[in-house]
Each structure stands twice: as structure tokens, then as C-alpha cells.
Specification:
This protein is 78% helix and 0% strand. By secondary structure, it is mainly α. Helix 18 runs antiparallel to helix 19. The radius of gyration is 27 Å and the shape is elongated. The model has no long low-confidence stretch (mean pLDDT 82). It comes from Levilactobacillus acidifarinae DSM 19394 = JCM 15949. Keywords: Cell membrane, Ion transport, Membrane, Sodium, Sodium transport, Transmembrane, Transmembrane helix, Transport.
Length: 535
């Protein structure tokens, strides 16, 4: 019951964050809004009690893993192949450099022991792609830096985890076992790649076999393919926990599984278009909710940590200094690596360095320290310092990028064009109805209402009136339903032809505007035909 209450609360708050962001503050990233509501939830005792104690393993497995799986699925495998050397360089070479700078820098400035300093440094290395989006909203991130940041964030979590394990063993045993550390890294990383690729390959083969089997999934719009959707949605959980059970990197396993699934989605969409469409919509829904949940949880944990009187460091504020040192060390390490090793120009190096945002993964790794033999006092220092690092990594680039990056071209002009063309398109379709003398007045009113709903020119009062009419109306006969569906097909054909004439014949609209509205009409017709098949 506690897990159900906690999950429901997080999803509701995440949904509220999305609503508030879109309705009230669309110019602010939804991630910041989610963090705000998470913090607000944490300061209200009744609501705070609904969310269970934070468990890093559950958080990474149930929330972070599927997000990385979906993120990997949006990345082409050949993109990883082309950038393989860069990925290894960023996720191994640069991570080690940043950890060394942060570790020795922290120990030298604060007089902390090297093992503890390297625990802090290891946790500070993973970056978060979803967090990066929150600091560049409305700004144009250079393509090369955007690609590098995305690929880095997909694969550097495993490096951070291995370094953290090494530092904890150093803290506990008093020495570093370099051979064991290297062996663990290779086993974890390569094992994750092999496990993720092989298991996802088996799952893809299973789904494709079902899709083309006598179960009649193929090209059957009456069959939603529920078993295939369930297998697909369970894939990241099965892969992550399965990989962790054999002690290989669950993070790398789900990322590579996503890469393998990318090609499957491209080459099997037309085998059952409805199944593919439903899967894409389900993916978007889950991704939006989970991404918002990540930052709701981050807001909750930041506030809980700051309000928890047991989380202190002997009354000292050293944790603030350590957090600042960790951030500056990582920033400089990233900059130097880009300038010296990757030979990028000064501007590119600073953009990449500032774009390495830390988020929920960093916080989750900090909490894993609690389950080790690290002293409670030192764990508190880790938790508080990494909180400062996360906040700085989001606030600093949010400010500096406003001066460094160009603004994206405003969408207002495109939105205005879409509104105008959509209105003309609808008028053309409504005029088509007048050319159908055999169409009943009732059908004409119903179709006109639906057409005008396409651009929001219907009120709630009108909707209620239509709803009452439908409730009172007897079931349509098959002949009436056929006529109604045929009418919709004619008006949608009119809308599509209008768009085709504007784009291909007259060259009056942009490709982006054409694709946007054509997609709207196609989806509208899909919904009408689907409704007709159910009646």
C-alpha cells in the first residue's frame, strides 16, 4: 500500500507540474517546475508522508533505467559506431581526469582523506541528458556539443559507478586494488553491452515472430497487440535487474538495448501501423511522466536533506565548500579535456563543459553510500556536498548560456501560420459538406462541430449540447454509420488536398507547416475510422 500511495503521489505531482508548465510558465523548463512542486510537497507534512523513503536501487531501476532505454532508442546505432572513439574518450578518459582533479583538489583544499575525497569525486562524474535540456530551453545548442553531451550522458554512469566502488573499497580497506578495479570495469561495461545486446536481440526476435505468426498481429487494426506492448514496456526493467543480478552494468545494458531497438521500430512500423502508433504514443507518455517524476523526486530529496537535522557535518559548513570544489573541478576538467585532448576551440570547450549537468543519477549514487561501511558523518557530507554540486550545475549554465548561446528561432511565426492555414483548411472542408445534398442535417451539424473542434473553435457549452444529443440519440444503423464514415473520409480528403495544393503546387507553405497539419488530419481520420470500427 505504501508503494502504491508513493507512486500515485509522484505521478500526480509530475502531471500537475506538466499542466502548470504548459498553461502558466511555458518559457520555463518543466524540470524546474517539477523540482519546485517536489520541494513544495516535501515541506507539507501530510503530503510528504505519502512518499516513501528514497531507495536508490529502486529509483534507478524503475525510473532512470526506462528513461535511458527510451533515450537509447532515439539514438541510431550507426551514430554510436561513428562516435565510438569519442564515447570511450569522454566516458573513460575524461571521467578519470575529472575524478582525479576533483579528488585531489578536494583533499588538498579541505584536508579530507583521499578515499573520502575520491568517493565525492566519483559521484560527481555522471551527467544527466534530461537535466541538460532544462538549461538550454529556448536556446540553440551547437550540434556537435549536443551530440557529445547526449552520448556522454548515455554511457558515463557506468564509469562513475565503477569509480565509486573503487573509492569505497579504498575507504574501507585502506588501499586501492588497481587490478580488481580494472577487471570490474571491463567485466561490468563489456558484460553490460553483451547482455543488453543479446537479450534485447532475443526479445526483438520473439516480438517479430509473434507479429508475423498465426496470432494474426500483422496488419490487423482490430488487434491492438497488447502482448507485444507489454513485452516492450517490460524490456528495460527485465534488462536492468537481470544485468544487475549477474553483476554487469544494468545502465549500459538498457542503453544498448535501446540502440538495438531503434532499428526494429524503423523496419517494422508498417507490419501493424496501429500497434506501432500506439507504441510510440505510449513511449511519449511514459517518457514525459518519468522525466517529470525524476525532478519531482530530486526536489523532494533536496528539501528533505536540507530539513533533516540528522544530516549535518558537526555544525560545519564545509559541505558548501566541498560542493563548490567538486563543481569547479569537474567544470575545469571537462574544459581542459576538450581543449587539449579533443582540440576544440575555446567557445566549444566552454559550452561542452557547462553543459555537463548533474541530476538524479548523481543523487541516487550519493544515497548508495549509505548502504556501505562509510561512516554516517561522512555519508552526510557526501549527501550535502553532492546536493550543492547538483544545484550549481543547473543554475550556473542556466545563467551563462543566456549570454553564450543564440536563441532558437521563435515558433510564434510558425504557430501563427499553422493557425491561419488550419482555419482555411477547415473552411474548405465545411464548404464540402454543403455540396452533399443527401447528407442529413443532423450529420452535417455533427461533422461541422468536429471539424471546427480541430482549431478549438468550439466551446464547452457546445460540447455539452453535442454530448446530450448523442446520449439521447438511438444507435445508428449500419447504413447510417457507413454514410457518416464516408462523409468524414470526404472532408478529410478535402483537407489533405488543400494542404497538398498549398505545398506541392503553389509552394505557399513551409515543409514543417505542411507536415504538422497533414499529420493532424491523418490522426483525425485514424480516430474516426477507429471509432467507426467499434460501433
Amino acid at each position: 500500500m505504501e508503494l502504491l500511495a508513493s507512486t500515485s503521489t509522484l505521478i500526480l505531482v509530475a502531471t500537475l507540474s506538466i499542466i502548470v508548465n504548459r498553461q502558466l510558465v511555458p518559457k520555463i523548463s518543466v524540470n524546474y517546475v517539477s523540482m519546485f512542486f517536489g520541494g513544495l510537497l516535501a515541506v507539507i507534512p501530510v503530503l510528504n508522508g505519502l512518499v516513501a523513503h528514497f531507495e536508490s536501487d529502486i529509483f534507478i531501476g524503475l525510473i532512470v533505467a526506462p528513461l535511458l532505454f527510451f533515450e537509447g532508442q532515439s539514438t541510431r546505432m550507426n551514430s554510436v559506431g561513428r562516435n565510438f572513439r569519442q564515447i570511450i574518450s569522454l566516458t573513460v578518459g575524461m571521467v578519470i581526469l575529472c575524478a582525479v582533479i576533483a579528488g585531489f583538489g578536494t583533499a588538498w583544499i579541505t584536508s579530507l582523506g583521499l578515499p573520502l575525497a575520491f568517493i565525492l569525486a566519483a559521484i560527481s562524474t555522471p551527467t544527466d541528458a534530461t537535466a541538460t535540456e532544462s538549461v538550454v530551453m529556448g536556446l540553440e545548442l551547437p550540434h556537435r556539443e549536443a551530440t557529445s553531451l547526449k552520448l556522454e550522458s548515455l554511457f558515463n554512469d557506468a564509469s562513475g559507478i565503477i569509480l565509486l566502488n573503487m573509492a569505497i573499497l579504498w575507504y574501507v580497506n585502506g588501499y586501492i586494488n588497481y587490478g580488481q578495479t580494472l577487471g570490474d570495469f571491463l567485466y561490468s561495461a563489456i558484460g553490460g553491452v553483451i547482455f543488453g545486446s543479446l537479450v534485447s536481440g532475443v526479445l526483438i526476435y520473439l516480438r517479430q515472430s509473434m507479429l508475423r505468426s498465426r496470432l494474426n498481429f500483422i496488419n490487423n487494426t482490430y488487434n491492438s497487440g497488447t502482448p507485444l506492448k507489454v513485452i516492450y514496456m517490460m524490456t528495460p526493467f527485465f534488462l536492468y535487474f537481470g544485468a544487475e543480478a549477474i553483476h554487469v552494468s544494468g545502465i549500459i545494458a538498457v542503453v544498448f538495448a535501446g540502440l538495438v531497438h531503434n532499428a526494429e521500430g524503423e523496419r517494422s512500423a508498417l507490419a501493424n501501423p496501429k500497434l506501432a502508433y500506439d507504441s510510440f504514443q505510449l513511449l511519449d507518455l511514459v517518457s514525459d511522466v518519468l522525466n517529470s517524476v525524476v525532478f519531482v523526486v530530486l526536489g523532494i530529496m533536496l528539501v528533505r536533506t536540507s530539513l533533516d537535522k540528522s544530516v549535518t557535518y558537526n555544525g560545519s559548513l564545509i559541505w558548501i565548500g566541498v560542493g563548490v570544489i567538486l563543481y569547479v573541478a569537474n567544470l575545469l576538467g571537462r574544459y581542459v579535456y576538450c581543449r587539449v585532448v579533443q582540440r576544440r576551440d575555446n567557445y566549444s570547450a566552454w559550452v561542452f563543459a557547462l553543459g555537463g549537468i548533474h541530476g538524479a543519477v548523481t543523487f541516487a549514487l550519493a544515497f548508495t553510500v549509505a548502504a556501505t561501511q562509510v561512516k554516517t558523518q561522512d555519508f552526510n557530507l557526501v549527501l550535502m556536498s553532492e546536493s550543492v554540486l547538483i544545484i550549481l550545475s543547473m543554475v550556473v549554465p542556466t545563467i551563462l548560456f543566456r549570454f553564450m548561446l543564440p536563441k532558437t528561432e521563435t515558433d510564434e511565426k510558425l504557430a501563427q501560420g499553422i493557425r491561419e492555414v488550419r482555419e482555411q483548411m477547415i473552411e474548405r472542408a465545411v464548404a464540402k459538406l454543403d455540396e452533399m445534398p443527401k447528407l442529413s442535417a443532423e450529420f452535417k451539424l455533427a461533422v461541422t462541430f468536429d471539424l471546427k473542434s480541430q482549431d478549438g473553435h468550439t466551446t464547452v457549452k457546445q460540447f455539452v449540447s453535442e454530448w446530450r444529443r448523442m446520449v439521447r440519440h438511438p444507435e445508428y444503423t449500419q447504413a447510417e454509420m457507413n454514410q457518416l464514415i464516408s462523409t468524414y473520409q470526404w472532408v478529410f480528403k478535402t483537407e489533405r488536398q488543400y494542404l497538398i495544393d498549398l505545398y506541392y503546387t503553389n509552394h505557399q507553405v513551409s515543409e514543417e507547416l505542411f507536415n504538422s497539419l497533414y499529420r493532424e488530419v491523418a490522426m483525425a481520420e485514424l480516430m474516426v475510422l477507429d471509432y467507426g470500427s467499434r460501433n
